[in-house]
Amino acid sequence: MDNNIPTKGGKTKYWVIIILAATVAVAAVLYYEKQLSIDMTHIVMQQQTKTQPATTTTPEGDFKDWKTYADAKNKFQFKYPNQWVPEWPTIDKAGIIWVNFSLEDPASTKNTLYLKIFPNQKLFTSEKNIISSNAHLTPVVADDSQAGYYSDFTDIPTAFIAGHNLFLEIGEPNNGDHVLKILSTFKFTK
Fold first, then answer.
1. Does the pTM of the predicted model rise above 0.70?
2. Among 3, 60, 89, 119, whose Cα sits 20 to 30 Å from the Cα of 167?
3. Are residues 12 and 105 located together in one domain of the fold?
4. Can you give the CATH number for the domain in which 57 is found?
């Protein structure tokens, strides 16, 4: 009998190995996602009232009707238009946290702004390199950190901010003019 021909028992061994490998892979993915989950109680969305002091260097009149998005865990905040609503953050397979903003109108499903919070500098730099190879950079400052603004990236004005151990991308898919305004109100918090 030729030992190279698998027997029925040999096929069973292969299936057991495949099932074990799949089980380990699923367990690893679930563990990884759990480790990357964020404590949603740290993300605070608040409406600033007119009696609160301005916390930006931009004229308060330009943003008095805007809301403040604050992320206590990642220690940043910025203002955004009053009619936008941030959605619950999600985490993709690479561990990037996404926060999408849409119009307040319940019938609207159009994404007006997105945030991407990168878990590390390597992923951030990879994304930034892709966009910078397809668009023109305008250096800007967000709070005390250098930021890059790409107004001509496939009709999605996009900005990158790196500072205080934070790697953040902000994009506006509807090709609006809000990204620079948002950057002017961006602050690192303690």
1. no
2. 60
3. no
4. 3.40.1000
Number of domains composing the chain: 2
Same domain? For 31 and 110 the reply is no
Element (H, E) at 113: strand 111-117
73 and 139 housed in the same domain: yes
Which is higher by pLDDT, 178 or 32?
A: 178
Which residues, including other chains, have CB under 8 Å from residue 140's CB and lie 6 or more apart? 146, 147, 148, 149, 159, 180, 183
User: For residues 179 and 157, is the Cβ–Cβ distance under 8 A?
Assistant: yes
Show the domain range for 165.
40-188
Residue 128, pLDDT > 80, answer yes
Q: Nearest Cα to 108, choosing from 85, 81, 80? A: 85
Q: For residues 19 and 97, what is the distance between their CA atoms, to the nearest angstrom?
A: 31
CA 89 – CA 38 distance, rounded (Å): 9
Asked if 139 and 162 count as a contact pair (C-beta separation under 8 A), the reply is no
Note the pLDDT tens digit of each residue in 87-111.
999 999 999 999 999 988 766 667 8
